[in-house]
Amino acid sequence: MLQSEQEKLSTNSVILREEVKEKIVEISEADILVGIPSYNNAKTIGHVVRAVQAGLSKYFPDARSVLVNSDGGSTDGTMDVVRETTVDFESILLKHRVGRFYKIVTPYQGIPGKGSAFRTIFEIARELNVKACAVVDADLRSITPEWIELLIRPVLEAGYDYVAPYYHRHKYDGTITNTIVYPITRALYGKRIRQPIGGDFGFSGKLASFYLSKDVWDTDVAKYGIDIWMTTTAVANGFKVCQSFLGAKIHDPKDPGADLSAMLHQVVSSVFDLMEEYEDVWKDVKGSKNIPTFGFVYSVGLEPIHVNLDGMIEKFSLAMKELSGLYQSILPGELMWFLSSLPQSSKKEFHFPDNVWAEIIYNFAIACHKKIMNEEHIIKSLTPLYLGKVASFVIETWDSSAEEVEKRLEDLCLAFENEKPYLIERWFEE
């Protein structure tokens, strides 16, 4: 019996290691799986593992649960930390769990990157026939046991297939999400998923199997872009989606003016590639709608973010001098005129209107769609313009509260929705 089970698993699973297959045969089936992709996270992953185990024990005490650490070849002892970390239930729980809890700790196989780590997690979920899954980042400092309930329970008890995270972040943290990814994905697909690349998600076993059926694991999705790919794939294919409020997301903060060109290229190229795949879906979507939000939304304390405003404007100005020829091949004359006329010496007058920014992003998407040059060159040249928009946003909202900034971002999203006919007309023109 054991041999036939292993043979069956071997034919279904193409990437799992032999010791993982043996563990899966031992476990047989599970109700819940929580995955933690990692790479050199020994300093932080212990806290994440304790939060996950405590959350499973407190909120799903009767379930058969599995924690999977899918590691990218850490050399700092990350996997050892996961194996050795335990929870002192006497100190945190009044009721002890009844269900079984297992750990699977394994290096993943395939192209180095977060997507390959997720693929391993999806495969284990499929083989164990789990009902609900979640993935959480290994470097979280703000995760609590409640996160596990909020990511899992909408799947187990309310029939949702995908649970996006909803966090409160510092007003200048997550500027790629705020100025590009959230506005464009909301305008394209009509769902107000506030953190489409948040990093921490819940999803059904059915959706995990659907992800595995997509032929993307030898592409850039396996390296990066997995978060926006998961979100867009769920929405565009009609899966039932919601979001859960998780409180603060505290991680190593990044200066919006620092070199984020690699991350911007990774995320934006994924967004544009998905536009190609799902153009028949987004071309008919008008406006946007709220999605159900679980959890109690409350104000949280946030760590400050350093902003190098002068550096951002300087990089924008330099690009306008050195890349103007390239921009002229991407942007129409009126947008080029606007960019050239921005008063770069005066911060008070440095202002990027929302409709102009929406048209710039749409023109970059169209340039990639029409293949006017190498996609990598197109998207990497977007970075200085993005820094210009962020600089304008910082100047405009310097004295604004987090709530006021959120209202300001709503205006930006509406600009993307209002300019969508401009995108459609140029995307589909002969």
Description:
There is one protein chain. The chain has helices at 2-12, 18-27, 45-59, 78-84, 89-92, 114-127, 145-158, 175-189, 205-213, 226-236, 261-277, 279-282, 309-322, 324-330, 333-341, 354-369, 375-380, 383-397, 402-418, 420-427; strands at residues 32-38, 65-71, 101-107, 132-135, 162-168, 201-204, 241-248, 293-294. The protein has 430 residues and is α/β, with parallel strands linked by helices. It has two domains: 2-294, Spore Coat Polysaccharide Biosynthesis Protein SpsA, Chain A (Alpha-Beta Complex), CATH 3.90.550; 309-427, no CATH class. It has an eight-stranded mixed β-sheet, sandwiched between helices. It is globular. The mean pLDDT is 89.
